[in-house]
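Researcher: Next sequence.
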Amino acid sequence: MRNKLILLAGILLLLGLLFSPGAARAGGWATLTLTELPKEVVAERPFTIEFTMRQHGHAPVTGFDATVLAVHSASGEQLSFATEANPDEENYTATLVLPQAGEWQWEIETWGRVYPMPPLMVNEAVAAANGEGVRGTAVGAAPVAWQLILGWITAVGAVLSLFFWTRQRSKLRLAAALLLGVVSVAGFVLHAQMPQSVLAESETATLPAIAPEALGEALFVAKGCIQCHTNDKVTMAPNVFPVGPNLTFVKRPPEYLQAWLADPSSLKPDTQMPNLHLSDADITTLVEFLVSE
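Model: Next structure:
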């Protein structure tokens, strides 16, 4: 009796997966690939993400609704952002504005499923001390150098006039020395009173959205690898569709993995593994993650 109940529960679970809204619309299942990971995110500053959906992980599809959900890890603040279709391509985009600094967990909800993304570290918003400016750039009036030049030239003239007055004293030379001295002092005073450039206050260090040591794992999640493959080294997100082999221990040499990720069909023409059009840098990072202990 117990075995029959377990079998019945398994059948019901399988039917639920097959006939869920996402599964039915996708013809079974679909994977989501983020085009590029955000490099730096600043609180209150908009940034854009782009992604592609693939039916059965292979054929790109369009004509669906998707929502980006974000939660601040410390405060629990929750936000949602609508997505827009690119009319000329098969990509979708969403513009996000995260108001708090710190770690944000986020995911994309579409096709009746939730696709988790790597957590993002958001930097504190920074404003200039004198007016608004860009982080680390100068704002305010630039120093006017001609007052300083005038001060030095007239100072030299005053010294020379005073020197000639000591050699042959005359009221004219004394008056010239005094006049040049006054002009020199005035030039230095004007220069000192001119507004100087102000550098925007900045943090001692700007944190990347994804820590470099976690970039390989983040790409494994964001590019959709976790949606078809299991990898015990991944803690950012659970496996979604266990249709591919377990990639916890990859025995292939790095050179093979490089070629495979660049164009899987070139090594196996009948493969279901799609060409994700990864950059050389992303491929190198993923290979290092896959072969790491």
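Model: The helical segments are 2-18, 21-26, 146-167, 171-193, 215-222, 254-262, 264-267, 280-291. The first strand starts at residue 30 and ends at 34.
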